[in-house]
């Protein structure tokens, strides 16, 4: 059932999936080889339009580039969103190359190197500090370059978010400065020669529960209200994080964006407007923006029967799409939506198992699936491949060639 929803989002014609309006077989011929990732800018734009039409207009949209750093896609995003968040010096350079204003780029993540911090200060990028060590390095870089760095404090909140695929706040964390330590840090910044814009709180990712997201956002606003009194100047930047999830499996229900937006309207027009009239509230989204616009396309190399089980062996695998194999932090492996892309209108046949070309039983892309009668050279398509795909996978494992990526 779930795969049919994605077929409708991308479109089909004459039994073929269409990506960017192009039949899959023609796209595969144009790319020249399989496997490959394809990102449909129409699907991407529809998601951004839905956010713009639903969320309060005062909120800035920031693209968390770590979800998909493909340069062509980032270039497209730079024209559609308000900000870009980066997590390394290389991502920073890709973002700067789009022409977006440097002060519209934020640099987050633990373990920033002194060279990356110097690069960010020199470029005028907003640095979200995650420790007092990073703060000292930012101050040193500003002194060395004769510049005033702009920073925000990433806060590790004193609450955790239930229902998140990955918890990134609450309890001990490598992310951010513990909220109880923030006042002392801010008092020490007053004469340090940096411009503190505000705060970043990111409590968890891949959450499909609108009520939990709204509660986290309310608690975030309450938390930063207690911290903002220690800022040298009125708060101008409030990154509420993101964590909006997308459905990957049959049991997942899509996030109710309208319910999230209603909670945000109450916050933006209530406590945020009253307590922080100079602050720009920011939503930092990665997976929710780009995850559903991407497909991973791989070709059947072999169809084999082993003791009653039918296997389709494809030329891709977990070295390109680790998450679909269940090896990207999932506690229980469940199938991603998957179709035979050149036979989407054919009736399902007997159950098959789709495996990759690697020498490990972990290389499993689809287990016990009812698919049309696929054979050698048919195209297997995995949906929900627009985020944490290629760059989140062990691409060097066994030395297979890297897949192409196309934005269509």
Automatic annotation (TrEMBL):
InterPro entries, alphabetized: Ala_racemase/Decarboxylase_C, DCO2ase_PEP1, De-COase2_CS, De-COase2_N, Orn/DAP/Arg_de-COase, PLP-binding_barrel
Requisite cofactors: pyridoxal 5'-phosphate
Keywords: Pyridoxal phosphate
Domain Orn/DAP/Arg decarboxylase 2 N-terminal stretches: 45-290
Gene Ontology biological process terms, A to Z: lysine biosynthetic process via diaminopimelate
GO molecular function ontology, one term from the record: diaminopimelate decarboxylase activity
Modified residues (N6-(pyridoxal phosphate)lysine): 66
Residues at the active site: 359
PANTHER family: DIAMINOPIMELATE DECARBOXYLASE, GROUP IV DECARBOXYLASE
Protein name: Diaminopimelate decarboxylase
Species per Swiss-Prot/TrEMBL record: Microbacterium pygmaeum
């Amino acid at each position: 059932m779930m795969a049919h929803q994605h077929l409708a989002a991308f479109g089909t014609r004459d039994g073929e999936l269409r990506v960017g309006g192009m039949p899959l077989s023609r796209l595969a011929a144009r790319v020249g080889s399989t496997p490959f990732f394809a990102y449909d800018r129409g699907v991407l734009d529809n998601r951004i339009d839905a956010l713009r039409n639903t969320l309060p207009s005062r909120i800035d949209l920031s693209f968390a580039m770590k979800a998909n750093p493909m340069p062509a896609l980032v270039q497209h995003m730079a024209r559609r969103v308000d900000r870009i968040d980066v997590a390394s010096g290389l991502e920073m350079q890709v973002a700067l190359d789009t022409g977006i204003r440097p002060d519209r780029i934020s640099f987050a993540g633990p373990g920033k190197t002194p060279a990356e911090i110097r690069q960010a200060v020199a470029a005028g990028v907003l640095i979200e500090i995650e420790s007092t060590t990073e703060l000292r390095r930012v101050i040193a870089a500003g002194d060395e370059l004769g510049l005033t760095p702009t920073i925000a404090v990433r806060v590790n909140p004193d609450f955790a978010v239930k229902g998140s695929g990955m918890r990134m706040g609450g309890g001990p964390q490598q992310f951010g400065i513990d909220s109880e330590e923030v006042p002392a840090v801010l008092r020490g910044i007053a004469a340090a020669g940096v411009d503190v814009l505000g705060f970043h709180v990111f409590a968890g990712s891949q959450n499909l529960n609108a009520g939990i997201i709204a509660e986290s956002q309310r608690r975030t606003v309450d938390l930063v209200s207690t911290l903002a009194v220690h800022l040298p100047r009125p708060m101008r930047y409030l990154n509420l994080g993101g964590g909006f999830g997308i459905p990957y499996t049959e049991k997942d229900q899509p996030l109710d964006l309208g319910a999230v937006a209603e909670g945000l309207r109450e916050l933006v027009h209530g406590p945020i407007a009253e307590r922080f009239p100079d602050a720009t509230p920011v939503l930092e989204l990665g997976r929710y923006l780009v995850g559903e616009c991407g497909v991973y396309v791989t070709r059947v190399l072999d169809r084999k029967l082993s003791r009653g089980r039918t296997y389709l062996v494809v030329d891709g695998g977990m070295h390109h799409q680790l998450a679909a194999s269940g090896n990207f932090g999932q506690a229980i492996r469940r199938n991603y939506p998957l179709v035979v892309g050149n036979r989407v209108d054919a009736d399902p046949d007997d159950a098959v198992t789709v495996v990759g070309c690697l020498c490990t039983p972990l290389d499993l892309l689809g287990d016990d699936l009812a698919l049309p009668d696929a054979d050698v050279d048919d195209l297997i398509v995995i949906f929900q491949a627009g985020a944490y795909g290629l760059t989140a996978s062990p691409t060097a494992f066994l030395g297979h060639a890297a897949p192409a990526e196309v934005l269509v």
